[in-house]
UniProtKB/TrEMBL annotation:
<keyword id="KW-0833">Ubl conjugation pathway</keyword>
<dbReference type="GO" id="GO:0030891">
    <property type="term" value="C:VCB complex"/>
</dbReference>
<keyword id="KW-0804">Transcription</keyword>
<keyword id="KW-0539">Nucleus</keyword>
<dbReference type="GO" id="GO:0006368">
    <property type="term" value="P:transcription elongation by RNA polymerase II"/>
</dbReference>
<keyword id="KW-0805">Transcription regulation</keyword>
<protein>
    <recommendedName>
        <fullName>Elongin-B</fullName>
    </recommendedName>
</protein>
<keyword id="KW-0597">Phosphoprotein</keyword>
<feature type="region of interest" description="Disordered">
    <location>
        <begin position="89"/>
        <end position="117"/>
    </location>
</feature>
<dbReference type="InterPro" id="IPR029071">
    <property type="entry name" value="Ubiquitin-like_domsf"/>
</dbReference>
<comment type="pathway">
    <text>Protein modification; protein ubiquitination.</text>
</comment>
<dbReference type="InterPro" id="IPR000626">
    <property type="entry name" value="Ubiquitin-like_dom"/>
</dbReference>
<dbReference type="InterPro" id="IPR039049">
    <property type="entry name" value="ELOB"/>
</dbReference>
<dbReference type="GO" id="GO:0070449">
    <property type="term" value="C:elongin complex"/>
</dbReference>
<keyword id="KW-0007">Acetylation</keyword>
<comment type="subunit">
    <text>Heterotrimer of an A (ELOA, ELOA2 or ELOA3P), ELOB and ELOC subunit. The elongin BC complex interacts with EPOP; leading to recruit the elongin BC complex to Polycomb group (PcG) target genes, thereby restricting excessive activity of the PRC2/EED-EZH2 complex.</text>
</comment>
<feature type="domain" description="Ubiquitin-like">
    <location>
        <begin position="1"/>
        <end position="67"/>
    </location>
</feature>
Length: 117
């Protein structure tokens, strides 16, 4: 079954899918094809910010088709090795929040009908 993933590092977000039996190393190789960073220079972190081990499958981290759907992908953190040989701190820049709705729009229901007065 397909597992949908959102891999985040600083302001970079990668959306991809894989099988639940895919190993972490195989996922790192997919990422290498996108950002041109070797698998040994990558660290992946699950939702609990625990480093994922190369030989483990995504399934071992609870990433299944029922928990990581296309409309709500599982988030994985990515850190890369710097030029000094050490890994950077895990940093996932928060997304910006949309501005508040104008007062005119707040009085309407989501389906477009006006609320009774």
């Amino acid at each position: 079954m397909d597992v949908f993933l959102m891999i985040r590092r600083k302001k970079l977000t990668i959306f991809t899918d894989a099988k639940d039996a895919t190993t972490v190393l195989e996922l790192k190789k997919m990422i290498e094809g996108i950002i041109k960073v070797a698998p040994e220079d990558q660290q992946l972190f699950n939702k609990d910010n625990v480093e994922m081990v190369d030989h483990q499958a995504l399934l071992d981290y609870g990433l299944t088709a029922s928990s990581a759907k296309a409309q709500s992908p599982a988030q994985i953190g990515l850190a890369v090795r710097g030029e000094d040989g050490s890994f950077e701190q895990l940093d996932m820049t928060p997304y910006s929040a949309p501005p508040d709705l104008p007062d005119v729009m707040k009085s309407q229901e989501a389906n477009g009908a006006e609320l009774p007065s």
